[in-house]
Amino acid sequence: MIPKSELIFVYEGYWGDKKFAFGSTEEDALKALERCYAYGEPEEDLEDRLGTHWAIGDESEGWRIVPREVKVQHIDGTVYGSFPNNLPVHLYWDCPSCGYNWGDDVLADTKFPHLVLCKHRKNSGLETSYFLVHISEEDRVKLNGT
What we know:
The protein is mainly beta. It folds into 2 domains: about 5-70, no CATH class; about 70-145, no CATH class. The chain is built from 2 helices and 7 strands, in the order ββαβββββα. Strands 1, 2, 3, 4, 5, 6 and 7 form a 7-stranded mixed β-sheet that branches. Strand 4 and strand 5 form a beta hairpin.
């Protein structure tokens, strides 16, 4: 049975005080940061990039990954697509707090339950929330193409 909620550590990737990525492990957060549009050396046609250097200490400029304990709610999601069939794969889920319908890209190395974030677009008065999305066994089979 899926638990309703639990306390977990989430690893958030920052440049200064702006969060750009997150993960359920430090390694996942690092991978997400390295895929982020802002990670990389600034170039003429890529001005949004901030750099690739890591902050040393609390006051220096650079990337940092910060662990934070948060309460997450477990929710159900649905997967569309299949990696073995070369179809794009998307995870669809509904935020139980604000009702917003989300569709996130899923990579081949995505683990479930999958950590997601809602900024509550339908109710900006709510604080940003993390959720762990579970998929059905049928979706797992479909995802793997077996």
